[in-house]
Amino acid sequence: MSAFNGQSNSQLILALSKGRIFEDTLPLLEAAGITVTENPETSRKLILGTNDPNVRVIIVRATDVPTYVQHGAADFGVAGKDVLLEHGGEGLYQPIDLNIAACRMSVAVKNGFDYETAVRQGARLRVATKFVQTAREHFAAKGVHVDLIKLYGSMELAPLVGLSDAIVDVVSTGNTLRANDLVEVEAIMPISSRLIVNQAALKLKRERLQPIIEAFERASQSKSQ
Ligand code: AMP
Fold it and tell me: What class of enzyme is it (predicted)?
């Protein structure tokens, strides 16, 4: 059921992705009395120790975090709402919005492309994105016909080389769009990262997990105030 099979119910595995989510989760872990003893940016290790011998952190791709937690290979994890919407959230308990790694999901086009007119005239838009589910739902709700082109990265390139008319991507400062002569034409939804917990682990390891969930909740609330 859980990773590292045979471990006792006191062992916890937390799934995180490198970069912003890892960095923004560290203060929440500290609030729960947990210090990660290795840095994933300098270490090649994928399983990191903490000051608590019963808690380990695994480093996985952001889009894989829900999969590890869903299957119980990690007991809990932190994943962006963007990633959770694409995953579907099956088998996951999502107790709290951690208010970290905040950004927004937006539609962007090449500077000069008249998005409003294209939409008003009922043109069929080619949209490149990693976030196919979110894009499909957004354009369906607006009644806009789209051909979705699935990409795995560097979406900003697609309108520049004529692969698509628009992209759906996460935007934080907007610097990446500006650097590539793209403009944000529609904000779809705000995005932040959520704590996710394996449903079976929540029952079997509640005594260990609950205090951590509560510490995360307190720390993320005080941060957002
Ligand atoms: P920015 O230039 O600050 O708007 O950042 C945009 C780029 O960073 C996009 O290509 C995104 O893929 C990535 N990005 C920014 N914020 C986040 C986030 N919270 N979660 C995931 N990716 C992000």
Answer: transferase
